[in-house]
Amino acid sequence: MAVLNKLYPTALWENFENICNIPHPSKHEEKLVAWMMNWAKENNIGCTKDKIGNLIFRKPATKGMENRVPVILQAHVDMVPQANASTKHDFTKDPIKPRVCEDGWVRATGTTLGADNGIGGAAAMAVLASKDIAHGPLEVLLTIDEETGMTGAFGLKKGELKGEILINLDSETEGELYVGCAGGLDGVITKTYRPAATPAGMKGIQILITGLNGGHSGMDIILGRGNANKLMTRILSAATEKCGIQLSSFVGGNLRNAIPREAVAVVAVPEENEKALTKLVNAMAKILKSEFAATEPGLTIKAKAIDAPAKVMPAAVQQALLDMVFALPNGVLRMSDSMPGLVETSNNLAIVKAENGHIEVSSLMRSSVDSAKEAVGQRMTAVARLAGAKISLEGAYPGWKPNLESPILNTAKKVYKDKFKKEPAFMAIHAGLECALFSVNYPNWDMISFGPTIMHPHSPDERVNIESVGKFWDFIVALLKNIPKK
């Protein structure tokens, strides 16, 4: 049953609801890509798929607009799969369930919504299908796997597109025009060990952290939200020192670009210290809930008795792991000197998986200054080395350097002011945009990014503001009409 078809603009929202109905998490976009190609065929719109899997649509200029500078509208087809612990959802099989809320927002039911970047893709499709929007020569580029590696942007070859202006539809605050973004670097720390048999006389305890807000590791990093991996490490370090626990497993977070919301650890504790451990966990829960009262009102920390685990980490490995996670940088590391209020450099300690003889700790470093990003990587390397672990620094992508003299920026500023009677803001964003990668093979593209207002992407609290989507659409239509002549 359609729930979004009464919202403005109708075509955009209908496209978005169709996108929600087709599973499309990163690395599993094939069903949505196939549906989009069939949609293009049904609507007599030229569509090709490049070798990496990106979709490229082409539409001739409308009458009288043939002499305008060719434009590319761009979005990505994948979404971040995050669900609440209480929500059973298979993102590779189950549709997203959007709902219209009385407060003027569209949310999903217990999961990420995929407005990042489904709204951008839906808008581009609505332009392609429209019979009455004025535009010059038009291409639409929909990339794959943006969220977990920017695979589509990395794989886009020279000469695939003919446009000269690229309009990226993947920003998340209406009324803001983006002309720069941070670069990124993945850090993956690994270490192996031989598990030991759990000594006799030990009790099993599971420690669980839930209820954190999480969020986008770039956009939301400035909010100071709790990181489940960091909080769990504080608890386990105290419990090691005071209760003599032996760690069996520690698992927290599951996506490098999402602030980790949950973590679970299984420990063995001497029988005589079982009550002391429960008391310590409860005391730490009280402390952490007080520290994060403003940003994490839903934080829950619980200890539950379970069967004693069969295997535990050797004491030296356990200490090295906890010291390493404690020492690794996390959160905002430096603010921008040139753009007040913009995060320059950050790190998201995203994933910890330590169990069955293998440790893996993954982070995503971001910075608008390449040398600063590299310095964070060196810092991560130093900590890993001290812990006797290996580190791989991979997936690096550059930042997008702002060009305040950009012709499309100047055109967009004028169009926005004429349309909405106020000046738009223009800025850089502390997140990765594919524009940075496009500039490598298409250095002459004039680029800009904008979008509707989307709150808390990459978390089940993701929502998109309905009114802002209408303004976003009206701005696209007005901007396409006012693209300058060649």
How would you characterize the largest beta sheet?
9 strands, antiparallel
Helix-strand makeup class: alpha+beta
Helicity, as a percent range: 25-40%
Apparent shape: elongated
Strand content: 25-35%
Taking Cα atoms only, what radius of gyration do you get, to the nearest Å?
A: 24 Å
Tell me the total number of β-strands. 23
**Helical stretch tally:** 11
Q: What distance lies between the first and last C-alpha atoms, to the nearest angstrom?
A: 46 Å
Low-confidence stretches: none
What would you note in describing this structure?
Helices cover 30% and strands 27% of the residues. By secondary structure, it is of the alpha+beta class. Strands 9, 11, 12, 13, 14, 16, 17, 18 and 19 form a nine-stranded antiparallel beta sheet that branches. It has a six-stranded mixed beta sheet with strand order 1-2-6-3-7-21. Strand 17 and strand 18 form a beta hairpin. The longest helix has 18 residues. The radius of gyration is 24 Å and the shape is elongated. The mean pLDDT is 96.
